[in-house]
Amino acid sequence: MIQSRGLKESLAPSVLKPAGIPAFTGKKMSMLRCLPEDRRCCLSVSRFSPALLSEIYGYTACRQLSQLLLSIIFFHGSEYILAVAFHGRSNVTLKSLLISRNYLLAMFFSLVEYIVEVSLFPAWKECWWISNFGLAMIVVGEIIRKMAIITAGRSFTHLIKINHEDHHKLITHGIYRFIRHPGYCGFFIWSVGTQIMLCNPVSTFAFAAVVWHFFATRIPYEEFFLRQFFGQEYEKYARTVPSGVPFVK
Predict the structure, then answer these.
(1) Helix and strand totals (H; E) in the chain
(2) Would the pTM of this model clear 0.85, i.e. be above it?
(3) Which of 3, 86, 110, 191 has the least CB density, counted as fewest CB within 10 Å?
(4) Calpha distance 26→45 (Å, rounded)
(5) d(C-alpha 65, C-alpha 218), whole Å
(6) What angle do CA 219, 207, 73 make, to 5 degrees?
């Protein structure tokens, strides 16, 4: 009987404790600070713990959303400041911030997608090489667009001019030597980059399609008036310099 009792006691931990799960010791186990032998248990519990998910993925969400917010603030703020610098405050309205209803809806949709995916598929947001590539696109797009504005000066406007003005000149130097519409090119890269930076697959394709369609319609309309303003000079320029927007001649 003594041997049998000892055998039961020796087998009790293995029988009562499933493999990989620590036996109850009477101490409160921290879900965020597990002992090495408790890690497998913590990983299994983490699937059902919003607090732990927030702890693990909080850095990712904070970093990516902060980058998005700073990118948006800098982009629109600098657009307004440069417009005031070149055209004067009296000639600039809040439309120079380039914030429209459709733009706000698009950004709202992208945030909804991000929240859903970071909650259900958090690993998607941990692809840092993709996120950093998107951040690089934001920087490149911003640089291209701001170079376009600074190079064109007063000739750069947010609204298409249908009447020729004295200060309206055909700009073919600087970045305009390589890209016909660097402002549009920069915005296209910037907008798609924001979604790649967030690792939003749906919004990446949606932004690319919507922005491309917008410029594919806008560029021919704008160039109709540019050909009227500058005639053969613009025809020659348009034949030798690409538009800067993919698949738009």
Answers:
(1) 8, 0
(2) no
(3) 3
(4) 18
(5) 31
(6) 90
